[in-house]
Structures are given as C-alpha cells and as structure tokens.
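Narrative of accomplishments. A recurring question from our advisory board has been how the design workflow behaves on a single, concrete structure rather than in aggregate. To address it, we present the structure tokens for one chain from the evaluation set, followed by the sequence designed for it. No filtering or post-editing was applied between the two.
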C-alpha cells in the first residue's frame, strides 16, 4: 500500500507563521491587555500533494503525531485515478491543535476529515 507524505518544509513553515502571529498579537502570554475575543484560533494551509487512488483508498502520513490514515474513496473513482490531498493546520494561540485533510478528484472534494481540534 502506498502511503503519501506531506512536505515537512511546508508544515514547519506554517507552524513558524502561527507562532510568529501569536507573538505579534501578544497571545503567548495572557495579561489584562491581551485581546482574546477571537479565541486565538487560526487555520493555515499546509500544502497539497498529488496522490493516486489504490484499492479505493488514499493513505497519508499525517504530521504533528497524528499517524497514518487511509481515506476511503467512493467506488466511482477507479484505481489509478489522480487526486490531490490538501492539509490545513489548526492552531490556537500559535499552538498546533489539529489538522484537516481534504482529498479532491477533478477539483471536487470527495472526502474530508479533521484530526485533533479544528
């Protein structure tokens, strides 16, 4: 079974951006002047990769310790169908809290799942 990996450079870049935003917004240390009205939650695009349907599944290694997961693909898409898997990184106050993965075929999302808190 082929298992695909997301680009770790892109993932680290997203985590750096989230951390930098939290620092700029003074969300790293709560004080009476910290504006928490937005909850500090943000979602960052972590990149997309090309994948191929095999056994009506697409298997991905997820970052941030979420392990591997095989996404079921509807049988109308035969083995060998080209697809795209995209990942979003969810953060709260600059700390990663989850990931959301979407798998698209021909530009249409066929399956999406969140892991952790998104």
């Amino acid at each position: 079974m082929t298992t695909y990996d997301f680009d770790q450079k892109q993932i680290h870049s997203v985590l750096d951006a989230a951390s930098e935003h939290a620092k700029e917004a003074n969300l790293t240390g709560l004080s009476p002047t910290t504006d928490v009205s937005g909850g500090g939650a943000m979602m960052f695009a972590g990149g997309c990769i090309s994948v191929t349907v095999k056994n009506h599944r697409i298997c991905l290694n997820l970052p941030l310790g979420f392990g591997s997961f095989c996404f079921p693909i509807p049988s109308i898409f035969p083995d060998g169908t080209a697809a795209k898997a995209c990942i979003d990184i969810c953060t709260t106050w600059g700390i990663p809290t989850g990931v959301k993965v979407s798998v698209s075929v021909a530009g249409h999302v066929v399956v999406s799942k969140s892991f952790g808190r998104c």
